[in-house]
Each structure stands twice: as structure tokens, then as C-alpha cells.
Design brief:
Helix content is about 65%, strand content about 0%. It is mainly alpha-helical. The chain has a single domain, classed as Ferritin, CATH 1.20.1260.
Length: about 250
Amino acid sequence: MKNYLLKLADDSFFMGHRLSEWCGKGPYLEEDIATVNIALDQLGQANNFYNYAVKLLDNGKSADDLAFLRYEHEYVNAHLVELPNEDYAHTILKMYAFSVYQKLLYTALSNSADEELAVIAQKSLKEVRYHNIHASSWMRIFAGGTEESKSRLAAAIENYWEYTKGLFAKVEGEEDLIAVDAVPNPDELYEEFIKITEKDFQDFGLIYPKDQWMQKNSRTGYHTEYFGYILCETQYLQRAYPGCTW
């Protein structure tokens, strides 16, 4: 269960970090606030999963230790969440794909045989439903907007869609959890993801990506070239001032 909890926590932690980078830089004030609020939701979810992992590990480590003081190869997040924001179309595409994934995942985990995991999922699902509505609205706006907005969204899809399947990659021990109904099978979730996104793209007026090739090695400890920069930012304070508290 530890690896699975870290998978969920790391995803939300780095997605929250990326979204927080828009603070003070959003396209307008209301959207700036909305994006940062979604970032806070993700960081809150990460904290819940890290704290549960701490309870299971029972080795004296804290949630902060898991979030800030592991080595690069110990993080098992999907590659999608560590990619840079680029322009706002790239960010919205990531937010959209991630929200569809989390909505499917948390809906399934709400019925988990693990009661604590189910409770965290139920709470998180309430937040993720809003994230999905928000991102879907912007996908529709970009797709039906100006030539520039359409071209920027098309570029985002071309650059980042190949990372979406990595969200559904498994971690060590996950098959055992699937067997006892503690977690859903991500292969089945991915099939649902395709169905939902295909329908959404049709509704948005977008052409669904035809190239089925997907990036590999998510959740293996191997990361993109952008990951080291994230760790430099997120770990600086904890490593510069070991054991510091707020």
C-alpha cells in the first residue's frame, strides 16, 4: 500500500506545485485565484496521502520528509504532472487530463475495501469534480475561440497528450491491492479515460489525437529532464534548514 499512496501523493504534490507557479501570473485575477485554489486542493490531497503513508511506514518519518526529502528515483509520480506549464493552454490541457483521471480514480477508490483510503478519496472527489468542470470549460473556450487560442491548444495536445497514459501506470505491489479490491485496475480506468476524452473532444470541436504512441517509464523512478529543477525548488528550504518548522 505504501507505494500506491506515494503514487497518489506524488502526483498531487507536483501538480499542485506546477499550478502554484501561476500565482500572480494568471491571465486575469479571477482565473489566477481559481488556479491557485486548485493547486491548494492538490497539495491538500497530497498531504492526506502522505500522512496515511506515514502511519503505515511507522518509521519516524513525517509527511514533510516524504514530500521534500526523498531522492529523485524514489518519487513515483506520472511524468505529466512534472512537465512545465508553458503557456496557459498547456496548463489547462494538463489540468483537464489530470482531472478526468482523478475523477475516475477517486470515484472507484470511494468504494475501496481500505476504509481510510475510501474516506480520503470521497473527500478528494468533491474537489476534483470542480477541477474537471473548470478545466473542461477552458478547453471549450480555447477550442472555440480565436485562431491563436486554437493553435495554442493544438500545440498543447501535440506536445503533452502522449504523456497521459503514464497516469495509469502501475507501481510495485499494485496488482496485489487490485486482487483484494483495495484499488481499481488502472487498465480499466484508462479505457474509460479514452471514452470520456473522445466524447469531450467531440463536444469541444477538437480532433482527437490519432497517434496512439505514448511516453513510457512513468512511476519507475525515471523522470523527465524537468524534474531536477522541481526538486531544487521544493527541497531547497528543507535541505538548507534541516528540521525547520513553520
